[in-house]
Amino acid sequence: MDTETLAGQQAAPREAAARKVFVKTYGCQMNVYDSQRMADALAADGYVATDAPEDADLVLLNTCHIREKAAEKVYSELGRIRDMRELRARAGRETLIGVTGCVAQAEGQEILRRAPAVDLVVGPQTYHRLPEVVRKARAGEKVVETDYAIEDKFEHLPAPRTTAVRSRGVTAFLTVQEGCDKFCTFCVVPYTRGSEVSRPVAQIVAEAERLAAAGVREVTLLGQNVNAWHGEGAANGVKTRQWGLGELLFRLAEIPGIARLRYTTSHPRDMDDALIAAHRDLPALMPYLHLPIQSGSDRILKAMNRRHTAADYLRLIDRIRAARPDIAMSGDFIVGFPGESDADFEATMEIVREVGYAQAFSFKYSPRPGTPAAENALQVAEAVKDERLQRLQALLSEQQAAFAQSLVGRRIGLLIEKPGRHPGQMVGRSPWLQPVIVDEKAGGIGDIVEVRITRAPANTLFAEPV
Ligand code: 5AD
Ligand code: SF4
After folding, report:
1. How many angstroms separate the alpha carbon of residue 207 from the centre of ligand 1?
2. Are strands 143-145 and 120-122 parallel, antiparallel or unpaired?
């Protein structure tokens, strides 16, 4: 039914109906998780999530500041939403517009100046205050909330709701750590997400148990620097020594229903022995590791303040592969960092050839306000960045396709996630995070079944039950 044309007639029931919130997510997986938690927090205040922005009484853009392109997208989207708000206003409906996430944190008040239609701006450390901010905004106040909150936001956020988790499927994200103290010279994260904070073990276990109870089978632990996570361990209610991520993974694997664990994103300097041992000894820990190196050149790594060399990274990968030979590596790369010469770039190509990535993300360096590298006088020309990115991406896609092909004929465990695009098909996820298409006879959503990979055209894996 077209609600626009029925606006007058429907005024009364609409007032009685729940208010709707539409959240659009940009950027990383932590933003995906945060968007869900914001929806959970607002649900406690009577907001129902919708996928249709034109139906929403509250539109939230959960933004990313990592590269200029990501940040600028927000302003064009705000233009579209402002137009939509005018259409709704003509039908007598109000719309609140909010900006959350890393652009909110980085730009704060400036957002209201550039986009006066915005009603509220809330940074990532204060999502637990969102319901209160929305109430104030509904009363006509413009609210900017970008403190690094002193209170623990996680303690104040309501638990993920069972019904919401069910509708989100059998895989879930769980933030265990936020922020970063590494200060890579290209990166805004230490400024937008603040300094490193680990969530306590009990909070994480409780959340994982709720996810499991709602049918989640695979949990991906999230953190900007996830392997720097640490916390007070506990046995029989008694606090024990400090745990690292390895110990936490063992604890989470004990939860009935949780069959698969992953974590992302890691820093090479925080891969400790216990975590590597978990890759050897913990079957639930999936053989896939996102471990960015950014560049293969020691000179550039130093200028990036990565505090490791290419050789350190290769040695680390040797140790990880010794522990878990079938581990698939994933990474991030930046081309055109200030001062990057042809030889530096060739060193990046070389490390990619040596490691062999199953999956990787690569970006042109984007100067970010407030970061040291943005001030560097040796910025690389755009055309040079373009050319390097193309060459790097060609090599990475070749490796990705080769990895997919190498699985043809193999038996693997498949977690079935949802119906496929065509009738009779299901889509699942391989241990290496690839989507796999299989006949629906293989099993139901949430099952982990044995299948054989039959073919891998264009990186899509097809499988048959065994
Ligand atoms: N320019 C380009 N890429 C960046 N990344 C982080 N900051 C920048 C930047 N200023 C990339 C890194 C990081 C990933 C999340 O984004 O590769 O690992
Ligand atoms: Fe983007 Fe980083 Fe913020 Fe994630 S943490 S949204 S990647 S700036």
Report:
1. 30
2. parallel
Task: Note whether residue 418 is domain-resident.
Answer: yes
For residue 134, the domain's CATH number is 3.40.50.12160
Q: How buried is 438 (Cβ within 10 angstroms: 0-12 exposed, 13-18 middle, 19+ buried)? A: buried
> Using CA positions, which residue lies closest to atom 5 of ligand 2?
189
Lookup result for tokens 């796999």: 436
Regarding beta strands 461-465 and 448-455, do their DSSP bridges make them parallel or antiparallel, or are they unpaired?
antiparallel
- Tell me, yes or no, whether 141 and 175 share the same domain: no
- Exposure pattern of 86-119 as b/e (b: 16+ CB <10 Å)? eebeebebebbbbbbbbbbbbbbeebbeebeebb
298-335, pLDDT tens digit by residue? 999 999 999 999 999 999 999 999 999 999 999 999 99
**Could you tell me if the CB of 253 is within 6 A of ligand 2?**
no
Same domain? 25 vs 114: yes
Question: Does ligand 1 lie within 6 Å of residue 337's CB atom?
Answer: no
The pTM of the full predicted model, rounded to 2 decimals, is: 0.93
The structural domain count of the chain equals: 3
Whether residue 319 lies inside any domain: the answer is: no
Cβ of 67 closer than 6 Å to ligand 1, yes or no, is yes
Q: Which ligand is nearest to the CA of 380?
A: 1
Range of the domain at 281: 169-286
* Same domain (yes/no): 141, 212: no
